[in-house]
Amino acid sequence: MEQRVVAGWVKQITDEVMPNSMEIGKTLQHPDGRTVKVISGERWASGGFSNWWTWREVLADGSLSEKEEAGYGW
């Protein structure tokens, strides 16, 4: 299988149109209103745009939920 590297200009245009709000370790508000902490993921993979992330809900006491969730970034 052939591996292709995404051209720098493609990343630049994508980042301008779709700013990245996701970052490992960052605490954010999920679109459903919950506060979550990003625990893994990537915006760009070796073959192109990925934007796949894993997070856990931040509970009222500040601890993280045991349930790991994943999906595309927002």
Topology readout:
Elements lengths: L7 H10 L9 E3 L5 E11 L2 E11 L5 E9 L2
Antiparallel strand pairs: 1-2, 2-3, 3-4
Summarize the structure.
The chain has 74 residues and is mainly beta. The protein contains 1 helix and 4 strands; from the N terminus they run H-E-E-E-E.
Report on the architecture of this protein.
The protein contains 1 helix and 4 strands. It has 74 residues and is mostly beta strands. The protein has one domain (8-72). It has a 4-stranded antiparallel β-sheet, with no helix packed on it. A hairpin with a 5-residue loop joins strand 1 and strand 2.
Observed structural traits:
single chain; 74 residues; mainly beta; four-stranded antiparallel β-sheet; 4 strands; 14% helix
**Strand line-up in the sheet with most strands:** 1-2-3-4
Give a short account of the largest sheet: 4 strands, antiparallel
- What Rg do the Cα atoms give? 14 Å
Say what oligomer this is.
single chain
What structural class should be given to the helix and strand makeup?
Answer: mainly beta
| N-to-C SSE string, H for helix and E for strand | HEEEE
